[in-house]
Specification:
mainly alpha
Length: 312
């Protein structure tokens, strides 16, 4: 796209790619199913946890936080995706793009933090069960949530100064992905800062998550029967797939912001909010019973199922 000069009174704009593009109806169907699964699955998880007091435990409260970040991720992308679907020449102003970019950055960081907290929660529950309930007190959960918020917002403070009104650009994604928008910074430091900050945070989380799950998996495989080992292996594989669905597109989009590979990976970011309810929610007996009770299924009651201690 040819660039053109702007005066001080002009507003810097970004051009969004038009959808559905070459994908046609297939892409529209995928987007519709993904968003329907995201809103329905995460909404039901939040409703179930709020409606059943016996689910007010650290494991399920962290799952509620994950569902909240999933909804935040989907909703942050939705306005510009709708513009790219409906408008012949979709555009977004600099200020709105900056707001969406900051929201996405905060959601990515928050979701990575929640996934790390869930992995550490399972490590403590399985490897150190005697300290589990004593460690996860309501006050500690509150301080942990505050730490997540600060971790997600503090790196955003320099970003408004990294976008200069130089010229209009065509975005590769149907939303303002942080590393791509800052890639167009006149100073040239925007992409470096965003990519380094995002990837450093995600890399540290991945290392700690991997260590936690390996310790949990090793401890579970030593304790239980072959049938239980098979079930634990399936759970471990499902969690691994859910983590890959979030981190693989995130790293690809951050490292290749203006390429076809990065564009495809950015759409893959919509898959993780749809997968998380299926991976982390349905496998829990207590959550399933609570969900059926909320839906008014006659074969279930609102009485809490008898807990058998922390589960992996």
């Amino acid at each position: 796209m040819s660039t053109h000069n702007h005066t001080r009174s002009d507003v810097m704009t970004f051009l969004l790619p038009s959808l559905p593009g070459p994908g046609g109806p297939g892409l529209l169907t995928i987007l519709g199913l993904t968003y329907s699964t995201t809103f329905l699955g995460n909404g039901l998880i939040l409703l179930t946890i709020c409606a059943n007091t016996y689910l007010h435990q650290p494991q399920f409260l962290l799952l509620a936080l994950l569902a909240t970040t999933d909804l935040g991720l989907a909703l942050s992308m939705l306005p510009t995706i709708l513009d790219a679907l409906w408008l012949p020449v979709p555009t977004i102003s600099r200020d709105v793009c900056l707001l969406q970019m900051c929201c996405l950055y905060a959601v990515f960081s928050g979701q990575s933090s929640v996934l790390l907290a869930m992995a550490l929660d399972r490590w403590l529950a399985v490897c150190h069960p005697l300290y589990y309930l004593a460690f996860f007190t309501p006050s500690r959960l509150a301080w942990t949530s505050l730490a997540f918020i600060l971790r997600a917002t503090i790196p955003l403070l320099p970003t408004p100064f990294l976008i200069s009104s130089c010229s209009a650009h065509s975005l590769s994604f149907p939303f303002c992905f942080p590393t791509e928008v800052l890639h167009f910074s006149c100073g040239g430091l925007g992409w470096t800062y965003a990519a380094a900050s995002m990837l450093a945070t995600a890399s540290m989380d991945i290392v700690l998550i991997t260590i936690s799950y390996c310790l949990v998996f090793w401890q579970v495989m030593k304790r239980i029967s072959p049938v239980g080992q098979h079930k634990a292996l399936k759970t471990f594989t499902a969690h691994l797939c859910a983590l890959l669905a979030f981190y693989a597109p995130l790293f690809t989009s951050a490292l290749f912001p203006d390429s076809l590979l990065g564009s495809l990976a950015s759409l893959g970011l919509l898959a993780s909010p749809a997968l998380h309810p299926l991976v982390y929610g349905i496998q829990s007996n207590q959550l399933r019973c609570g969900l059926l009770g909320v839906l008014g299924c006659p074969s279930t009651s609102r009485v809490a199922p008898s807990p058998k201690g922390p589960h992996p």
